[in-house]
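TICKET: design request
STATUS: open
ATTACHED STRUCTURE:
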């Protein structure tokens, strides 16, 4: 039987006036018309605005702000001239203080309504650099024949096209202030219509007397580069002090063309935790925390919340390169790091050795696997005094189900998504007998609605 076609709902073309009631988890203003929720980009609670519909479904509709008739006292002028079109940020129109309050409340609401838990203490928010903080990003590249130019940047706020922009205020300034130079150079290349993306990774600044580059570019190209194009990328790297990598196909094809080296390839980037005398080398494809000023607050805070005396055995789940593992190891008897990416596990082992840390061991394991698969892991046959976990957005539901046998007295949970933190917190408190001692947000991604937080649980 043929399926009945769904008619597209005709959207009103004229601006509609509404009062904004709240902010959504994505940072959009929420209003209601005939009991239907409308999510409006650029609007703030308490404002009277007019908006234009951009889409409408049975459950809700979406729109973009047309005019602010009565502004919120928290409204500020966005710093970036491309903010109205670029989808990279969503909260530049909200004051810094109000952004923090919104994120803290978002975390607390999620804990209460999803996890049915409340922290005994709400920690002061961690804040840092508001601009130029972002040290890892994936930039889209598009040659637009009709405009006679190449676009480099993030996608538009509404729609799937790349935004027309020549700078970015949240990217590290060595890249964010030079988008127009990328555009001009790529336009002159033979491959201008077959270069879809540039990945950026920025390490710590080099100290006086040190030589090299702390910035790497991975250039994705869909066709083989001509000799001229390869030389242009090499010269661009020389002029702006960038490492330049090419990626002709999948992730395993990434290779460096500037500077030429085989011994140090992929290990020239690094970040440090001076407080713990640790230095972590990483490759341009590796995951690392994008905001250095927050990371240097977050790690000491996590170590503090673990309440280490030097005698504890600690389990570090989703350990990555050892961002938390090494600092914890400086203050504990032994740390076991577990990570799903074998490449990062091997890098973590090398990093521990390079830092003279001998009281750690590491295991490669998919922590999102089934309970039955996880139960046989050798590191799960031990007991630990403390656990630190820093899972992805999907949270740590699978492994938390096995925490009962580990008998840890204290758990520190670093979260990048309040809903999954709340779900997992509810499990720890309501099923496993922990209490939520405290929680607070960390402003890892200022100017966006992204909520990063840290919570501590005690048996």
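STATUS: resolved
RESOLUTION: sequence designed for all positions
ATTACHED SEQUENCE:
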């Amino acid at each position: 039987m043929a399926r009945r076609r769904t008619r597209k709902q005709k959207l009103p073309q004229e601006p509609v006036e509404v009062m904004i009631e709240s902010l959504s988890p994505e940072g959009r203003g929420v209003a209601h018309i005939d009991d239907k929720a409308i999510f409006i980009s650029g609007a703030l609670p308490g404002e009277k605005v007019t908006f234009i519909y951009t889409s409408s479904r049975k459950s809700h509709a979406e729109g973009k702000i047309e005019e602010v008739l009565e502004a919120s006292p928290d409204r500020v002028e966005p710093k970036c001239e491309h903010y109205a079109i670029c989808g990279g940020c969503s909260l530049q129109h909200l004051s810094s203080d109000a952004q923090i309050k919104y994120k803290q409340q978002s975390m607390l609401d999620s804990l209460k309504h999803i996890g049915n838990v409340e922290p005994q203490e709400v920690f002061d928010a961690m804040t840092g650099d508001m601009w130029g903080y972002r040290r890892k990003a994936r930039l889209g590249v598009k040659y637009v024949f009709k405009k006679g130019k190449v676009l480099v940047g993030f996608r538009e706020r509404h729609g799937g096209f790349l935004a027309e922009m020549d700078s970015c205020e949240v990217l590290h300034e060595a890249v964010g202030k030079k988008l127009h130079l990328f555009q001009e150079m790529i336009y002159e290349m033979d491959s201008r219509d077959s270069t879809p993306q540039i990945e950026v990774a920025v390490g710590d600044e080099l100290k006086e007397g040190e030589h090299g580059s702390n910035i790497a570019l991975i250039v994705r190209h869909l066709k083989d580069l001509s000799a001229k194009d390869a030389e242009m990328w090499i010269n661009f790297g020389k002029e702006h002090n960038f490492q330049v990598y090419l990626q002709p196909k999948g992730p395993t094809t990434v290779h460096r063309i500037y500077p030429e080296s085989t011994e140090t390839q992929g290990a020239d980037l690094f970040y440090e935790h001076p407080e713990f005398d640790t230095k972590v080398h990483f490759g341009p494809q590796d995951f690392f925390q994008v905001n250095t000023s927050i990371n240097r607050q977050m790690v000491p805070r996590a170590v503090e919340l673990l309440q280490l005396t030097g005698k504890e055995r600690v389990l570090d789940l989703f350990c990555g390169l050892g961002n938390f593992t090494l600092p914890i190891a400086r203050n504990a008897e032994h740390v076991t790091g577990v990570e799903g990416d074998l490449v990062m596990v091997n890098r973590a082992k090398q990093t521990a050795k390079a830092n003279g840390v001998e009281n750690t061991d590491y295991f490669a394991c998919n922590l999102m696997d089934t309970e039955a698969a996880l139960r046989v892991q050798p590191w799960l046959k031990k007991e630990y005094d403390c656990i630190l976990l820093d899972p992805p957005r999907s949270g740590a539901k699978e492994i938390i189900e096995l925490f009962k046998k580990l008998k840890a007295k204290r758990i520190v949970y670093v979260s990048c998504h309040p809903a999954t933190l709340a779900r997992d917190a509810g499990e720890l408190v309501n099923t496993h007998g922990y209490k939520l001692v405290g929680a607070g947000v960390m402003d890892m991604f200022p100017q966006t609605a992204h909520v990063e937080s840290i919570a501590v649980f005690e048996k």
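CLOSING REMARK: The domain at 16-75 is CATH 2.40.50.140 (OB fold (Dihydrolipoamide Acetyltransferase, E2P)). The mean pLDDT is 93.
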